[in-house]
Amino acid sequence: MNANALIEELQGLGVELWAEQEQLRFRAPRGVLTEERLATLRSLKTQVVELLRGAAFDAVTADSEGRHEPFPLTEVQEAYLLGRNESFGFGGVACHGYLEAVYPALEPQVLEDAWNRLITRHDMLRAEVSADGYQRILPEVPHYRIAIADGRGWLPSELERHLQATRSEMDHRLYPIGQWPMFELRLTRTQGADILHFSLDALIADWASAGILFSELNQLIQGHGDTLSELEISFRDYVLAQRRMREGSAYRQARDYWLARLDDLPPAPQLPVLSSAAADKACFHRHHWRLPAGHWRALRQQATGYGLTASNVVLTAYVAVLRRWSRSPDFSLNLTLLNRQALHPQVHALVGDFTSVSLLAVRAADDLPFHRRAAALGEQLFADLDHRLFSGVEVIREIGRRHGQDAALMPVVFTSAIGLGGTGEAEIGCRLENGVTQTPQVFLDCQVRDDEGGLEVNWDVRQGVFPAGLVDDMWEAFQTLLLDLAGGEHWTATEPVVLPAWQTSTRARVNDTEAPVPDRLLHQAVLEQAARTPDADAVVAPGETLCYGDLVRRAGAVAGALRDQGCRAGDHVAIVMSKGVEQVVGVLGVLLAGAAYLPLDVTQPAKRRDKVLADAAVAAVLVQSSNRPRDLPEGLPVIEVDRLDATEGMPEVAGGDPDSLAYLIYTSGSTGDPKGVMITHRAALNTIEDINRRFDVTGTDRVLGLANLNFDLSVYDIFGPLSRGGGLVLPDAQRGADPSHWAECVIGHGVTLWNSVPAQLQMLTHYLDAEPAAMPSLRLALVSGDWVPLSLKANLHRHAPAADLVALGGATEAAIWSNYHRVATVDPEWTSVPYGLPLANQGFRVLDAGLRDRPVWVPGELYITGMGLATGYLGDAALTETRFFHHPVDGQRLYRTGDMARYLPSGELEFLGRDDGQVKIRGHRVELGEVEAALSAYPGVAAAVAVAAGNDKGDRTLLGFVEAKRGTTPHAASPPVDAARRLAGHQLKDTDTEHAADQVDALHRAALVSMLWLLREHGLFSDREKGVTPDQVLQALTVAPRHHWLVRRWLALLVAHGWLTGDDAGGYHLATELAADDMERSWRIVAERAAGREGGSAFVAYHEDHVARLPRLLSGEQNPFELLFPEGSQEPALALYRDDLIARYNNHAVAAFVNRVAVANERTEPLRVLEIGAGTGATTEAVVPMLDGCRVEYLFTDLSPFFLSAARQRWRALSWMRFGLFNLDQNYRAQGLAPNSMDVVICAGVLSSTRDPDAAVGRIAELLAPGGWLILTEPTREHPHIMLTQGFMMEPAGDRETGAAPFLSQDGWRDLLAGQGGEDVVCLPDASHPLSVWGMNMMAARFKADRAPLSCESIRQFLAERLPRYMIPSHLQVLDRLPLTANGKVDRSILSRWLPAPLMGEDTLAETPSDDPLEDSLGALWAAALGLPAIGRDDNFYDQGADSLVLARVAGQIRDTVPAAGDFTYDALLRQMLNEPTVAALAAVLRSAAEGDTATPVDGGAPAEVGTAQTRAGSNALIVPFGGGEGPVRVLFHAALGTMDYFQHLGRALAAQQVGPVIGLAVADAEQYVSIPHQELIGRVADDYARRLLDEGYHRFQLIGYCLGGLLAMEVSRRLLERGVEVIDLTLVDSIPMFINTDEELAFEAIFAPNLNLDPVKDVFGEGLNEADVYRAIETLMQRHERHIPAGAMAALDGDDGLRAVAGAVRRRSMIPQDQRLAEYARVAAGKAGVPVGPELIPALFRVCRHSMRAACFDPAPYVGDINYLRCKEQQSFGITAGVGHYAAPFWQNACLGVFNLIDVPGNHFSVIEPPHVETVAAHLAETLRRAL
After folding, report:
1. What confidence tens digit (pLDDT) does each residue in 1456-1470 have?
2. Contact (CB, 8 A) for 1348 and 968
3. CA 1621 to chain CA mean position, Å
4. Topology of 1407-1493 in CATH?
5. Looking at domain 919-965+1351-1377+1391-1400, which CATH architecture does it have?
6. d(CA 667, CA 879)
């Protein structure tokens, strides 16, 4: 025992321990400190003193003044509080306990007085808990009255009814938050005793506290209250002291201990649970049992003998039971700790919730005896307890953060109070009975305690979670094990828990399948049938029918031909044919010859086919003359079956061994080589005879032979009906996948038996749904080989009502089938059709990894037994031994299927799919290992992984990933530096470059003079002696916060160039005076030196425009993008990036470099070039001509569609050029690119503009193929003229207050490139070149030169020669490194999600001009804005790459250039396009206004056409139709902006479902909307919208509210229901009301900012703030002001440095008028988007948004209907309201009086209604509607 454990044990026994200097002091109840405990205490004295002294450092101090002030909840209390809401998985329940205390007699008044004294004594009995995470002690509370029921005269039945009613009311109480009390006492008086009913919420007290209360209650009742010592401290004091401990080193050590183990902690026990468990109402049931005192004493003695504590033995017994029923033997157990730390001598007298939890990792220990397992668990537990300061709640939260909330669920709990005492009858004066506890997110809580009566064991189990009977079996096993341990059994056993007896007998019964054993050959019955009915039809094929006689005579000819070729009995003969009668003839012929047949698909790759032929050592190959493979291996006898003449007589059946081989079927092999399964005559015939017997197959039956011959379903097709005189109908081989042809065959030939994989039968029913036709002949449908859809039976019966559906299963290794299930009915609770029961002479077992039989409901690996088993794998003894073996205990022969299954209580099996590398792809069994082996065999591949993406029960896609071998050096060619140098120099041959230094000096001087001139103009540096601080400069120039860094860099440049000097105090002094004409003269010199140079005048004008506007640029009033692209012109930009001398040099150096790389490309594939941030195309213009005649693919990209139009129009004639949107700061896969897919990446002036250039280069390195080149151009020094102009568009390296210029030196770039793996770095111009003074360089680096490139197309061709088509991955990707889990395994879950999306902004087809000039002009404007050659009238702007900022810019252009828009306000135009983003809709509105139309109502609810939004007089609702077909109307409600722009993807996804018209409700007139007082807005708008919907004639509704639209949706629904209108469904999509009521404008702006893709802290409050401080400031003010934050409160914050920093930032920002702040947001947003945006965008949207947010502080009345709530799995910060998302679901749940259905959906608040997540949302909405209908 360690010191921590000893302290905990002694304190639990009531011992008070403390340290005085170096001495240990204690106070103990009589008899507790036994000699044994004293000896232990002495031996650990030093460690105990150290621990106690450390605790004393954080000792509790009484805070009497703050006693009634709020204090935070503990972590466990917080978990309990959140878990009360049903919106949390398995929540909806308080942590609560109920029990009954039975007293001999109680005087009610004495009881009541005593309890009220305890309320006064213990603060937490007066606690009030608030929903915002705080608790406070009420100074006074009313006198508590205990309800009394006097049942002393009642009949026993009356008393029992009363007791049951009382328990029903009290044992699952959910006390309202924010109210007192959180306990309840009632007294029932009976003839023999008095019963005190006690209910307690664990938020205020744990169950150790309950023991204290009962003990003290007994003292008070007995009149000994004066013995209770006064409490010096409170629970509040303890909590605050404990929180201070988190600041010490012990806490940090504990945190490091747990975080280091976190990724290795196993999940919770994987006990079987019901699929619908979360939906059930929370209710707990207690299983109670007591191990008698004698047995308990014996068990403790046994434990002592093994050196174990009794508590640890009971824990290990619990673990053993859990391991037996857990899918995995490794799991984490949630241990409850009564964690009263010795921070004060009175801690153990306090009432409160001291509970903590700890996760105990349980590892597989199959080879250890029970006592060794217990010892190991004890060692781990004590180590964990030494680090308990970092609590289990914190560990669980971190698991959730890293691995998701599902991984953080730890619902299996162990709570031990063994050895703590304190609740015996002597202490509490009563007997405790009928208790039950409940805890949120807990399924099973095992609670153990001991007293003089023995060991009390309680299991509190959440109902509706576990399958019926499961807990009963586990409970019985636990009791049995404890009794056996007490009796001395199982201590040395490795498996102490056995299978329940009833399950053993059930398994024996269902596996008792003994039946007559076949004792003849597989084909014998067919020959006998031919003798009986030679003229009966046997095989019917297109154009040919064979009778039985002809069939066997032709088979006889095959047998003869084989014998003539030397074929002997037991040989293997391959059949390589297409479907046809020749296959059947060939199969029978091979068997007649005594050989075994080997079917091979004629389409199989030759290499794979030949490998099989060689492996099987075939004696001959049977083929069809019309389809004979021409490339069969030489030397093999080949027989064309259709050219053989039938024998004259019937062949005789030769004798043979039924246990000899009948056929070989090769299946996919995990090693990469196919494996040959050997099936005997007896094994196959056993299955066939059973099926024929079981389903009454006769001579009147005909089967449709769909299965390929190499699929073992064909074995039944041939030998099933034919052995009974029936017929085989073969489809046309050319129409094998055509369901219309199948229907023709069934109907035309009277097919009675169907035999296929489920997907084929599903295809048939789908075809018949579209082209109805009856199939009366079909009586039996056998489906196998894959999951059987639950809908298949109903689908089949629509077209074949007489057909029985039978699901079969098994394996090729077990002779076709081994089990069956008649699908008579489909249970709605099923997730799949049961696997069923074993067939005759066959059996099943479900075993764990130790080959122990799994209990009912527990998944395990499925093993087949019996007569159907194959003899093994041909030529592979090792694999045969692995898969076919005898059970080590009972000797039964088993086949390991690799499938997972579980037994149901009935004895039927439920199939659960694979747990290894085998998958089903379109019905084919595919070993991922074989695919991986084929991929790995490709030259240059180091590692390969194949994964299946998609649902395991539906269509799946095969994905392949390869990693290239390293260590090769195929890229020896030196970089083409000379070519680049020559071409770049040639471009400037007629240009004066020798005086470049003079030009640079002049430009730098002019820029520096302009900076200093501006400073002097604003009164700075007038006194050369007086220093000027940077803050004074910023204030004098009124510099916007985002440019603070820039001005500081100006000052640094002026110092560096001698214009200013700096002093030690951080001030600056004037060093050089300016002459009056200095600035004018400086720029004149620049202009003179630029004269005559192409673009020179535009270059100078660009700089002079900035000089003239410096004050407005610094204040943020001037958008710098408007100077770079004035009125959309690109002339200044081209002057900078194309025409400037150094730009021309660098661009042509890039061009020459790319040209040389392209010319040197010797691969068959074209060179793949990606240009990122191509913008104006200045670099592209130089590169593209140099690629003429080369094999190349060129992808031109930019992050904005603004530049794509000109590029497309300029180079559209080049078929090898593509264009798309791409943002280097984001995930490249999500934007349509794949790793290793580019040979050259060009970044001209891009990388320094990224958020993190190092990370950006890392992403480029991933995109580059081996040997690929990154070519970049960048400034490599800080230029004054750039900082004067383009600096206004830059983000600094660092924060916006003191950050540096985002430029790296040449050495800096070399280091960065080398750090990401770049080699052979090139830098031009050379240092000796005259242009080097410009400090603007072209650089190039080669990546991954240590490996050869891999071509996905070549890999596909390679695979096609080795694998069947269905095994070739549909998508291949070359990775630098395969992703690994924390345990070092390949992370297949990540790979399954790594499919690149389509490239954004790909070309669209140009449309011919319409006959509508208005639409043509609008379309031209939009095409130009989006960079498209044209845009269709109905093309959605968002789909073509637009966003709200682009819409805002175009709105201004339309208002200025389109006459029809002249009467529209900017806001009206913008809102129209936000709501209906198409040319057609915009033109319709403009025309309507010109013609004077104001409304276009629809009649009778018929849906309006898409693109015709409607208003109506008297209503401010704009109805935006999306289409959608017939059915209930589906209404989308606008969010805070009042528009439909967020809903474009969702609206169209819903419309595509065609289950009802989809309409959006948007604000028609923003001014009218904001004129409504915000307190009345929700109600009045809901009145308007409800009226409007009814006026339109709609009468059945699905209402959908997203974001703040949820309030409108619910209120409209309420009004419709009140009018008796049918609301079929109300669904809220991550709808989050406003939880903050404020008058702070900056708060509204911060919440609004994310709508513009702005940072709500940095862009609103300024740089340098810690966002956590901002969120904390809001929380602090909400608490101070009871959720209403008044104006000015943020600026007045105080309390700590973080809050003061927030207050200072608010004061600074508040000094700027709001209109200027909003204009700044527009500029910042424009900068991020890369497009100019008019300043009028933001105010218009903000006014509506702010008004909506103020209105959304709304407390709705209870809603009587049901609500479906789709909650995003990813939390999203909404400006300053970080982390409020988890409050939303409880908010709606509290408002809902009906059923509240919570559904988690992928994505965050913004991405949930965008692709790809919008499809999930749409599917849920459709399913909800379908269920309701």
Report:
1. 778 888 777 766 777
2. yes
3. 38
4. 1.10.1200
5. 2-Layer Sandwich (3.30)
6. 13
